[in-house]
Design brief:
2 copies of one chain form a homodimer.
Chain A (H helix, E strand, L loop, with lengths): L4 E2 L9 E3 L32 H8 L4 E3 L2 H7 L7 E3 L1 H7 L4 E6 L10 H13 L4 E6 L3 H13 L2 E7 H6 L1 H9 L3 E5 L5 H9 L7 H14 L3 E3 L6 H7 L1 H12 L6 E5 L4 H15 L5 E7 L4 H4 L2 E5 L8 E5 L22 H8 L4 E5 L1 H15 L5 H20 L4 E6 L7 H8 L10 H8 L15
Chain lengths: ~450, ~450
């Protein structure tokens, strides 16, 4: 019987996160203050984040110890299994070997708790009693509620009203873990009340929800704000995924030729790929592919520019590939990939040609997800289906070329709470929509007035 | 750092199921023909089940090889982790050690695929192309859809109409795996059409759904019927859970003092406990506790009698603890425990005092489930919360007595698709309802006219 799964014994769980800032061939350009447009200092962020996380954000130390208390919580589901998709390989008739890291086994069903637990812990030891955040589809709000529950912190989540009403299950998940989730705009903040006064029927946006969460954090006692993607320390916390994968692949004497993950803000992709990017920096031959939706093609078709992380233009300006912070992507089912920008770390690594990018439309991703569900049994999140579409492409290419390549991808989450997308696909209601050029031109106009980052690359 | 989880390497997955019929101190009494009320012969079941499964149903062979093709599918998620609930222990301040077998990591989120995959395989090699079944809340229909998808069989599920409408997500799960799920009563069978002609607004019942599924199986080509609990072969397929647990406990030099599981038809409980019941039969000191809802107290308060497995009185009469096949329990959230009877194997083992039984009301079970969710992070199925209520009781008793007992329970499924129960609990809408004596008296009246099984026990 062929090997289908590698468990890493828990005593071998990695004890440190990997900080790719130590190895990047091109150093990062600084975030800029939203008003002065000058580089911000760590202290500028202190009302929003605890200092220990701000230190991680700017650190260039290669390895950072994972605290025992964080490891203890990781062990609820980690090390996550490394699995081989043999039935999918057979279905495709490919000589390629397809491995995946299964992050769907976490209590929240995705990779998000890897950073939520770390952030809750660091806030707690910094003396913080309460965290605020925003959530769109609800994945991040759930993960942070879970983490706060495990460390005894209060958690307040501002959930975009339209999702709040459409996704009652995600709301109930947060509530079950003790999180206080309100529909945004809410009457709990000055900004929310202002929006509601102007438009009582406003269905909300991620921008409004961020504004409310940040206002709440800076105006409430012992409270900080928490973000689930984009930032450097978030990417670092996720590297536990790739570090485990490397140990597991070694246990079976394998090394991937291709590493694949889907990208919205970038955290699951960074988590699996950064340890492999390091190998590539030091000379290993390996392809690393970031996959995004054709409806929100940040890396494949956006410019590298300074832009706000949020729609309300309150965060620092970050150097990244972006479609402009006012860009509102089509309501594709992969809500986690509908972000106008992408992690600055990933952006620089794309400039340095260490990471490739690809995009797929919704029909392609659900075709791939359905094949996976019916061969391997696991129904993946719509975000993950983007990675699977690319995996199937690579596996077919391997077949055409007659090469037995080893492919590794990140199964970032299951789709148990996102089944309506599968239904729409099965009913033939999805389109092959791809963002038109004119839309991109329009959306990125806003970037013209900001300072330009240098395009420095070490190709 | 204390051990939180034991992975069994996949090469050590058990290669045989354990058939408790080989070791039972009291032999089983035969099922009776629904009309003649005489013992049925295996051939009588041939239109409904394939002969290879009927052979397993009556086999007294102790170990039955798990076919390679079944093992291959099991390896998608098996061996499932054995975990320790250290945060729960600390919360309770108990000297007890609490372990659980985590069956929620299967692609369907429960233990049900353990038998669904075996049944799909045996039907397939018997030449069957299509399976039918009924489903209430939808867990079983999902598991069978998954299994049929993995073996390329068609799957038709008759889902009780009221659940079909209330649980759209479960329906979509089946659809995504390629299952054809219709609301029952349906116009697809003669019986369904008859019911609809009499009452077009009928919201259905498990009895009607079984009747439709069986009619479809016996009247369609290359089609058989599949059942997810109660029967002997189903219990046997689930023993992979307990056999893995025994190996995992041995890896850490542990042996449980108490084994706990929730019971509806009995399959998850049998799966974990039967290998330990065997140890008990051969002299080991161990307590084994079956936990049921106070709203449906089959083992704790029902008589041992011959009764039909279904509401429509079409199946053979089975010797079991039962509340009468017409009994309709309150609509508690733990839909999987709302069954009027219980596995005949478990029933006999209760008579033989090898298994104890307990019951808890809904409020107690959700209190327990919420404590677990907020300490261990995992949100369990409402069925599983019954087991957790008993675990917490045992852990408290260990604290009072100052004894460091080892408790093992079956985490049979997660609650991601059953969150409304938690919401009702948090909103204070659940009651401590327990089935009144008069209701039981009324419900079991129907049993008077059937033959009585002997109450043979080897205490």
């Amino acid at each position: 019987m062929e090997m289908k799964k590698v468990f890493l014994p828990e005593r071998e769980i990695p004890r440190q996160w990997y900080n790719i800032q130590a190895d990047m061939p091109t150093p990062m350009q600084p975030p800029l203050h939203p008003e002065t447009k000058k580089p911000i200092a760590p202290e500028d962020l202190a009302p929003i984040f605890p200092m220990n996380l701000i230190e991680q954000e700017v650190s260039t130390q290669r390895w950072i110890d994972i605290p025992e208390e964080v490891l203890e919580k990781y062990l609820i589901w980690r090390p996550s299994p490394l699995q081989r998709a043999i039935a999918l390989e057979k279905y495709l008739g490919t000589p390629a070997k397809i491995y995946f890291k299964n992050e769907s086994v976490s209590p929240a069903g995705s990779h998000k708790p890897n950073t939520a637990i770390a952030q809750a812990y660091y806030n707690k030891i910094f003396g913080i009693k309460r965290l605020t955040t925003e959530t769109g589809a609800g994945q991040w709000g759930c993960a942070l509620s879970l983490a706060c529950s495990l460390f005894g912190l209060e958690c307040k989540i501002y959930m975009v009203k339209v999702s709040y009403n459409q996704k009652p299950y995600r709301q109930l998940l947060m509530k079950t873990w003790g999180g206080n989730c309100v529909a945004s705009p809410s009457s709990d903040t000055a900004y929310g009340r202002k929006v509601l006064a102007e438009d009582p029927d406003c269905t909300g946006s991620l921008g409004i929800a961020i504004s409310e969460a940040v206002e709440d954090a800076v105006t409430s006692e012992n409270t900080r704000y928490s973000l689930g993607s984009v930032l450097n320390h978030v990417m670092m916390h996720q590297t536990i995924i790739g570090l485990e994968a490397q140990k597991q692949m070694e246990m079976i004497n394998e090394y991937p030729d291709v590493v694949i993950g889907c990208v919205g803000g970038g955290s699951n992709f960074a988590g699996l790929s950064f340890p492999y990017v390091r190998d590539k920096i030091y000379g290993k031959e390996i392809r690393i592919i970031a996959v995004e939706p054709a409806a929100c093609p940040t890396l494949t078709r956006g410019p590298f520019a300074y832009d706000f992380g949020d729609t309300a233009a309150m965060t620092p300006l970050l150097p990244m590939f972006t479609l402009g912070h006012n860009f509102l992507p089509e309501p594709i089912h992969a809500g986690g990939l509908r972000y106008h920008g992408v992690s600055p770390l990933i952006s620089q690594l794309v400039l340095d040609e260490l990471i490739e990018s690809q995009s797929y439309n919704q029909v392609q991703t659900y075709e791939a997800g359905l094949i996976f569900a019916r061969t391997e049994g696991i129904i993946c999140a719509p975000e993950t289906n983007h990675a699977i579409a690319a995996v199937i492409e690579e596996a077919k290419k391997a077949k055409e070329e007659g090469v037995a390549r080893t492919i590794l991808f990140n199964l970032s989450g299951h789709g148990m709470l996102d089944l309506t997308g599968y239904d729409s696909f099965l009913e033939g209601k999805l389109t092959e929509y791809s963002l038109p050029d004119e839309e991109i031109k329009k959306a990125i106009k806003v970037l013209e007035s900001y300072p330009k980052p240098e395009i420095v690359t070490k190709k």
